[in-house]
Backbone:
């Protein structure tokens, strides 16, 4: 099962290496990773998506807490979060296929961010399901490149 | 305001932390630091290999409870410390390792003697630092000692580029420590403590399982009081030995692969394990699914990650062993005053019978020099009052089995990592930490050859360690496994007659004695204890003596192989 873990850390060099090293040492694969500073520039948030059993996740959270630079860890409840990733997709497009692609893009409320003679670049943000649906629809036109950020997530409602 | 160099600042900070001895080895990138040490009254013990420095700092920390400090240069200096740091990490020993590094401008250029030691050491340290500016230096040193010595102790590495040690800084420059993510829980949750008390009082067959956490938190006295009040038998882990007197009738000594059979059977029969400062290592539990099948577990540990890691726990209590046991005792007394003292007669007589039925044994009538006999004689002649260091392997298990440990911080042994070559340098550190004590290294001929250059460290620093070498000409523990499980195919485990240990120790300026007969054992030990110098007694023991009892790997601890 996939779990999303949100980790607040001191914004110092080497901290990300310590976190990712911990995962590999204990035999976990990180499915997705996003890092950036919070409203306090001394603190960064690391959002990780990990596939593991419940018991293993509890253990990995306890091990993460042992890292001195880790301040707070939350395992996010998937039912109570807004989850987003951003994907750039470069797809083959000529004068015949372009209108159809534009129509799909508009249905998904995605954006065209680059137009060239034979390609279009599409930017989409959303949860994994939405991104996957667009990807599947664009595939027949020929996806030339696809770049995605790590997943970020924020719990709904008041600050916890 | 007067300025001092970074190196002088390091020395100043070490003194502020109460450091009076460091173990180390100089090199290019720590020359400025060694120059500052030259003017300081901090005692520096020059080892012969950096691994020895880390082990000596470790041994020093284990017997004193203070943080051990070791120093090495960049590159190979740091990498040579690695085994010693990993050893301290596995056994939760407070240590600060200081390594030199190439200058800040050279970092990342594959400069001469450059190694990414903070990267290398990340998985084997509690925390580590690369100092990037001189203004960070005093804070980092303070934080390093704080982190190493509090919570679950462990090693912290500080990597210091050489240019920072020659830069100047205001002598009184100070920055407070800043560890927003580090807040060890010391006091256990009182609700959980009360729940534990209820379960303990209701248990018919409880066992206390005491580990290294009791020793590092200084909880031996309160443990004894609790045991006295609650009348619960005590099993220790290897690192917990000495936390409870093994001369007490409630002591079951050590459990596990080479533990006593009565401890292993008690684990198998108990209905409640009160585990304090232990981590249920595989060497203790054997096959996990068959370990303590009847038992609920109350687990007290300062490290929440240890609770529930290997064993299902009914009542978890995160906290410092001493503080939690103090609360546990006072709550237990309150509870039993109200509800009466539980009757444990049946269980205690069962324990007594197990101890009578399955004592540790060896062939006492044999005319050969039996290692167990040597260890028993060491116990007798030191009146159980020595600090015993061990190497790793058969020597370590015989020491654990046949010496009776009665006080905390008297056994210095590499538990988690199982580091051959630990004992000699650790005993040097131990003797420097407790010069008032007789310090003995119960050693093996395989282990000691990994670090025999440290004989020189002992002699030149006048450290009168007594090495009791149980010499069987084999890498004995591996040979034992080959005998039992690999059809006696002794692949690469015979090292018979490869060195004359008496001449070796004499070459370094120590005293060598040799014992080939049983009736020479006692006199040799007596003589060794009298000589005020490094002494090595080379006991030619029964070569194929095995460590019994033994649990075969991945078997239940209730099934033990025994000598015939």
Residues:
């Amino acid at each position: 099962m996939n779990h999303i873990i949100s980790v607040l850390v001191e914004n110092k060099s080497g901290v990300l290496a310590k976190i990712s090293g911990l995962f590999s040492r204990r035999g976990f694969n990180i499915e997705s990773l996003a890092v950036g500073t919070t409203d306090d520039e001394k603190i960064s948030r690391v959002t990780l998506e990990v596939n593991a059993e419940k018991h293993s996740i509890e253990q990995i959270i306890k091990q993460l807490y042992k890292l001195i630079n880790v301040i707070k860890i939350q395992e996010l409840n998937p039912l109570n979060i807004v989850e987003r990733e951003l994907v750039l997709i470069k797809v083959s497009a000529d004068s015949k296929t372009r209108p159809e692609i534009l129509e799909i893009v508009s249905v998904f409320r995605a954006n065209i961010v680059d137009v060239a003679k034979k390609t279009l670049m599409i930017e989409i943000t959303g949860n994994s399901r939405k991104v996957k649906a667009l990807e599947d629809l664009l595939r027949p036109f020929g996806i030339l490149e696809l770049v995605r950020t790590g997943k970020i997530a924020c719990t709904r409602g008041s600050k916890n | 305001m007067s300025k001092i160099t970074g190196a002088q600042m390091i020395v100043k900070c070490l003194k502020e932390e109460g450091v009076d001895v460091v173990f180390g080895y100089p090199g290019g990138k720590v020359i400025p630091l060694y120059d500052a040490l030259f003017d300081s009254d901090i005692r520096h013990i020059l080892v012969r290999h950096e691994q020895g420095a880390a082990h000596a700092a470790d041994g020093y920390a284990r017997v004193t409870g203070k943080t051990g400090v070791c120093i090495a240069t960049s590159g190979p200096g740091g990498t040579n410390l690695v085994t010693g740091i990993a050893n301290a990490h596995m056994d939760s020993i407070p240590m600060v390792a200081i390594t030199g590094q190439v200058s800040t401008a050279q970092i990342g250029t594959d400069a001469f003697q450059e190694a990414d030691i903070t990267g290398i050491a990340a998985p084997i340290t509690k925390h580590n630092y690369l100092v990037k500016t001189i203004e960070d230096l005093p804070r980092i040193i303070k934080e390093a000692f704080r982190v190493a010595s509090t919570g679950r102790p462990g090693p912290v590495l500080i990597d210091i580029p050489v240019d920072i040690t020659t830069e100047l800084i205001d002598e009184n420059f100070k920055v407070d420590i800043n560890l927003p993510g580090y807040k060890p829980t010391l006091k256990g949750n009182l609700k959980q403590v009360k729940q534990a008390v209820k379960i303990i009082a209701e248990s018919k067959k409880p066992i206390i399982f005491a580990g290294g956490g009791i020793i590092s938190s200084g909880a031996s006295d309160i443990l004894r009081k609790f045991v006295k009040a609650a009348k619960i038998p005590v099993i220790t882990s290897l690192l917990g030995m000495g936390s409870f007197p093994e001369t007490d009738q409630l002591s079951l000594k050590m459990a596990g692969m080479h533990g006593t059979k009565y401890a292993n059977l008690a684990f198998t029969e108990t209905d409640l394990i009160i585990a304090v400062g232990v981590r249920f290592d595989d060497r203790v539990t054997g096959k996990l699914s068959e370990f303590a099948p009847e038992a609920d577990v109350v687990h007290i540990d300062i490290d929440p990650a240890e609770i529930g890691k290997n064993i299902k726990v009914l009542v978890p209590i995160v906290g410092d062993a001493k503080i939690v046991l103090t609360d546990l005792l006072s709550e237990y007394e309150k509870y039993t005053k109200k509800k009466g003292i539980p009757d444990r007669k049946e269980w205690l007589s069962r324990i007594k019978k197990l101890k009578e039925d399955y004592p540790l044994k060896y062939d006492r009538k044999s005319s050969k020099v039996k290692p167990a006999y040597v260890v028993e004689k060491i116990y007798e002649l030191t009146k159980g009052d020595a600090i015993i260091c061990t190497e790793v392997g058969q020597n370590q298990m015989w020491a654990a089995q046949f010496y009776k440990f009665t006080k905390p911080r008297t056994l210095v042994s590499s538990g988690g990592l199982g580091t051959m070559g630990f004992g000699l340098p650790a005993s040097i550190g131990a003797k420097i930490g407790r010069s008032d004590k007789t310090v003995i290294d119960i050693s093996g001929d395989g282990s000691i050859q990994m670090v025999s250059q440290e004989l020189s460290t002992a002699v030149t620093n006048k450290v009168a360690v007594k090495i009791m070498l149980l010499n069987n000409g084999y890498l004995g523990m591996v040979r034992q496994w080959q005998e039992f499980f690999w059809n006696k195919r002794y692949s690469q485990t015979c090292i018979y007659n490869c060195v004359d240990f008496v001449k070796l120790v004499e070459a370094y300026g120590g005293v060598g004695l040799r014992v080939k007969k049983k009736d020479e054992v006692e006199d040799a030990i007596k003589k060794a204890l009298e000589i005020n110098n490094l002494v090595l007694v080379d006991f030619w023991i029964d070569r194929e003596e095995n460590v019994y009892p033994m649990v075969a790997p991945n078997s239940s601890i209730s099934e033990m192989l025994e000598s015939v």
Summary: Chain B has three domains: 3-170, 190-357, 371-540. The longest strand of chain B covers residues 95-101. The interface with chain A takes residues 118-119, 122-123, 126-127, 130, 147, 179-182, 303-305, 308-309 of chain B (CB under 8 Å).
